[in-house]
Amino acid sequence: MKKKFGVERTIVFGSAARTRFKKFNDIDMIIVSDYLRKIGPYKNSILLYSNWKLDLPIDFICL
């Protein structure tokens, strides 16, 4: 996703970042990308979730 969406930085926060990650927790991730920021929140959410290939729940925040 870094090359595909021009991701400049990713930041994991929440329980996954604090080593309190449990089986049913999600991953909270901030994605910093000019490209995603320019296309808007609805389209960037669709792109990110449709390209997420791991079998783990995730919440994205784009900045």
How is this fold's topology laid out?
Elements: H1 2-5, E1 9-13, E2 27-32, H2 34-39, H3 41-51, E3 58-62
Parallel strand pairs: 2-3
Antiparallel strand pairs: 1-2
What attributes does this structure have?
alpha+beta, globular, 3-stranded mixed β-sheet, 63 residues, 3 helices
Q: What can you see in these coordinates?
A:
33% of the residues lie in helices and 25% in strands. The model has no long low-confidence stretch (mean pLDDT 88). It is an alpha+beta fold and 63 residues long. The chain is built from three helices and three strands; from the N terminus they run H-E-E-H-H-E. The chain has one domain. It has a three-stranded mixed sheet with strand order 1-2-3.
DSSP helix fraction: 25-40%
Main beta sheet strand tally, sense and closure: 3 strands, mixed
Order of the strands making up the biggest sheet: 1-2-3
Structural class: alpha+beta
Query: What oligomeric state do the depicted chains represent?
Result: single chain
User: How would you spell out the order of helices and strands?
Assistant: HEEHHE
Counting DSSP E segments of at least 2 residues, the number of strands comes to: 3
Mean pLDDT: 88
- What overall geometry do the principal axes of the alpha carbons give? globular
Taking the alpha carbons of the first and last residues, their distance comes to: 15 Å
Number of helices: 3
> How many separate domains?
1
Strand content: 25-35%
Radius of gyration (CA) equals 12 Å
Given as residue ranges, the uncertain stretches (5+ residues, pLDDT < 50) are: none
